[in-house]
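Not sure how to ask, but would you mind making up any protein sequence you like and the C-alpha cells describing how it folds?
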Amino acid sequence: MKQIVLFLFFSTSLFSQKTIEIFESNKLGKSREITIGLPDSYEQNPNKSYPILILLDGDYLFDPFYGALNYGAYWEDMPETIIVGISQNTNEERVDDSNYDDANGLPSGKGAAFFSFIGSELLPYIEKKYRVAPFRIIAGHDTTAGYSNFFLYKDYSIFNAYISLSPELVPEMDTIIPERFSALKQPLFYYQSTGDGDIKELLEDVKKLDANIKTANNPLINYKYDQFKGASHYSAVLYSIPSALNQIFECYKPISMTEFSEKIAILPNGQVKYLTDKYDLITKILGLKVAIRISDFKAIEAAILKNKSYTELDKLTELARKNYPKSMLADYEIGLMHEKLGDSKKAAKAYQKASQLDEIGDLTKDMMLEKFDEMQSLTPKK
C-alpha cells in the first residue's frame, strides 16, 4: 500500500513557507497531521540543502522553534532549517505514541509503531521530497522528550542532535543514556533543560541523568544542561529553545568580536588557515557547504593587517577568487598586499582590475579607483 500525502494548506511568510499535510501511515495504521516549514530561500536556491528538525509535540512547539530559527537565520547565526512538526493533538495520543514496556523499558504497542513511523516512513518521505542536508535534530517536551531518547538506544543514532525539554524519563534511562554516550562513535549534540519550578519527580530524575552523563567522558558528545531560575515546567521551554539552537549551531556563526580578539587577532600568522578550518568544520559537523561570509573575510583581513603578516593576503586572495569569482574581492586583497609590501605599481594594477568587477560588501568601484589613483601617485615616473 503506497503512502498518500494530501495537500491541505499553504501560506507564505516573510521568512518561510508553512504547509500542513495529512500523512497516511502504514506503521500507525492511520493518518497523522504534519506541519512543514520550508525556508524562504528554498525555491530560490535549487542547489542548497538544509538541516532538518523533527518536532514531537508539533502542535505547540512548532511556532516557538519556527520563530527562533527564522530569527537566527536572519542574522546568519543559524542555518535555515526545514522544520517538521508532528501533531499529537490530545494528551492520550502523545501518551500512546510514547508507550513503552514496563518490563524491558523499550517502546511497545503504539509506541513501537510511532518509533517505526518516524524512522522508516516520515524521515524517508521528507528526505526524498525535500533537499535535506545530512544533519537531523529531534526535539520534544516532557513525555515526548523522554521518548526521543529511545533513538539513542540503537548502535547508531539516526539523529545528530537531541533537544530534550523537561524530559519525563523512562525507568533506567538515567543510566542507559550515559552508557550509550560512552559507547557512541559518532559526534552527537545533546541538550536538556528544566526550570527550578519544574515538576519535582521529573527534576530529580534529570539531575541524576545530568550527573551520570558527566561521567561518560566521550569527546564526541557535545552536552549541555540548563536549569532556568524562576521557570516552570512550561515557561522553561521558551528559555530553552534559543539556548539549545545556539549550542548546536555554534560553529555556524560568523566571526564575533570575542572570537576575533581572543582567537584570531593573537595569531602571528595562519589567519587564513583559521578561516578555512572554521568553514571546513561547518561542513564536517552540519553537512553544509557555506560560502565564506564577506564579514569573515574582512575580519581575517583586519587580523592580517594588525599582525603585519601581509603575505597571508595572497592566500586570502585565492580564497576570495574561489568563493566570489565575479567580484572585486580577490583583486582588492592582492592589491592590498602589494600596497602594504610597498609595490605601488602592482597595487595600482590590481585596484584598476578590481574596479571593473562586481562590487561586494563595502567594496565599491569608486573606492577601487581612489586606491588606483593613490597608488599611481606613489609610483615613480620613468
About this structure: The mean pLDDT is 94. The first strand starts at residue 5 and ends at 12. The two ends are 84 Å apart (CA to CA).
